[in-house]
Amino acid sequence: MALRWYATVSFALVAGYLAFPADLRPIPFLAVTFGAIPAVIVGMRSSPAAARAPWWWVLAGLVVFNVGNLAWLWYFYVQGRATGDGTLADLLYNLANLLMLAGAMTVVLRRGRRDIGGLIDAGITAFALGGLLWDAFVLPQLTAADTPMSRQAALFVNVLVMAGGLGALLRVSTVSGRQVPALWLMTLSMGTGLAGNLVAAFAVDPATGTRPDWTTMIFMAGYTFLGCAALHPSAADATRPGPEPKDDLTAGRLTFLGIMTALIPIVGGGRAILKLPTDGLLVALGSAVVIPLVMVRVARLANQRRRAERALLRMVNRDPLTGLPNRAGCLERLAAELDRPGVAVLFCDLDGFKPVNDRLGHAAGDELLIAVATRLRGCIREQDLVSRFGGDEFVVVCRDDDPHRAVDAVCGRIREMVSQPLTVGGESVRIGMSVGVAFAEPGSCIDDLIGRADLAMYEAKRSKSVGALSLSGF
């Protein structure tokens, strides 16, 4: 209800702005600009506390904007100045734009935290296109109108800041997974504000430095869109993390980014060669902003590739069920340990696993293997390794200055482990374990050591019963 009334009244004031006498037009203008403040306050209070941070920035920006509006009206009506260029109003407008950008970026960073690569691409593109728009169209118009440098600098900051914010908001709006109207309304507000600045630059009268009064309606619409965004029920969703889109830097996308990176220097340099008005500050600033963004983008891709390679390596050397190193991981570790003295291998095979698996099902069998793996981790020291060698077989690798003492300690803990029942599939079960031990000798190879431990395990299995530990060694 609040959104409907606010939108109806505000847009009615925007549509009827020119119907007011010229000296009364500040009334609907201030009604719309000040009206956005309570709209944001109401919308912010209806959002969860964790979602209010962006709206605090927006509220601060609106307050500063309105102070700037009052300052501009004072200069215009009291001092009789045609424009507010170079005045306190200009400074306040720039500060307000930065506060608004902070609010937009807070939304972008919260909503797009899973899409940093896409946001960087959007920022590069928006900055490059904003720079092209400035250098090819806006600057020549301002130069022809003999616009003061203070006004050019203020407009330059506004255009680039708002272009970057608009690009980022468009990105999070289009990949939000589901439509979030508040995001689109905020994007419309930013786009309308940018359009207002550009239209005002092109519509300004070169002789007087004033702009047509109808251009004020564009800025009023921007305020209204912002108030509607705050009041919309989806405002809280705008700060929730969005989906994680696929981030593939394809050849086409890389080519596009390359073009965007080179756009500002090429256009600026081309205009300089043709002796047309060009902005050296834009070329320098464009390179200072866009090139680091590209470097960050490439660095992120390199990190993603390294993480993928590490994850793939973990998958190759890791048992997916128990999380223990698999056969390949065990053999890799054993190959590294054989270069050092005091290595022992314990080959462990579960007794009674098959009856449990057959009676309770494969899911219970998997649960049993996971439980055994967890308990085996607690039986070894930090420097030892336990691995799932295959099926219901586990291999422990120990290295110690006194390997016999280390093996005795590990076997003692395993004996205690198998003496306690396990609960799987909702039932209490008891299993045993046959352990074969082999100690490395000078010149031992991996196959020899594993083979002797495996043979010792079968010797132990012949002499034991389920629910107990049987040991044999070679």
From TrEMBL:
<feature type="transmembrane region" description="Helical">
    <location>
        <begin position="214"/>
        <end position="233"/>
    </location>
</feature>
<feature type="transmembrane region" description="Helical">
    <location>
        <begin position="280"/>
        <end position="299"/>
    </location>
</feature>
<keyword id="KW-1133">Transmembrane helix</keyword>
<feature type="transmembrane region" description="Helical">
    <location>
        <begin position="254"/>
        <end position="274"/>
    </location>
</feature>
<feature type="transmembrane region" description="Helical">
    <location>
        <begin position="56"/>
        <end position="76"/>
    </location>
</feature>
<dbReference type="InterPro" id="IPR029787">
    <property type="entry name" value="Nucleotide_cyclase"/>
</dbReference>
<feature type="transmembrane region" description="Helical">
    <location>
        <begin position="26"/>
        <end position="44"/>
    </location>
</feature>
<keyword id="KW-0472">Membrane</keyword>
<feature type="transmembrane region" description="Helical">
    <location>
        <begin position="153"/>
        <end position="170"/>
    </location>
</feature>
<keyword id="KW-0812">Transmembrane</keyword>
<feature type="transmembrane region" description="Helical">
    <location>
        <begin position="5"/>
        <end position="20"/>
    </location>
</feature>
<feature type="transmembrane region" description="Helical">
    <location>
        <begin position="91"/>
        <end position="109"/>
    </location>
</feature>
<feature type="transmembrane region" description="Helical">
    <location>
        <begin position="182"/>
        <end position="202"/>
    </location>
</feature>
<dbReference type="InterPro" id="IPR043128">
    <property type="entry name" value="Rev_trsase/Diguanyl_cyclase"/>
</dbReference>
<protein>
    <submittedName>
        <fullName>Diguanylate cyclase (GGDEF)-like protein</fullName>
    </submittedName>
</protein>
<feature type="transmembrane region" description="Helical">
    <location>
        <begin position="116"/>
        <end position="133"/>
    </location>
</feature>
<dbReference type="InterPro" id="IPR000160">
    <property type="entry name" value="GGDEF_dom"/>
</dbReference>
<dbReference type="InterPro" id="IPR052163">
    <property type="entry name" value="DGC-Regulatory_Protein"/>
</dbReference>
<feature type="domain" description="GGDEF">
    <location>
        <begin position="341"/>
        <end position="474"/>
    </location>
</feature>
<dbReference type="Pfam" id="PF00990">
    <property type="entry name" value="GGDEF"/>
</dbReference>
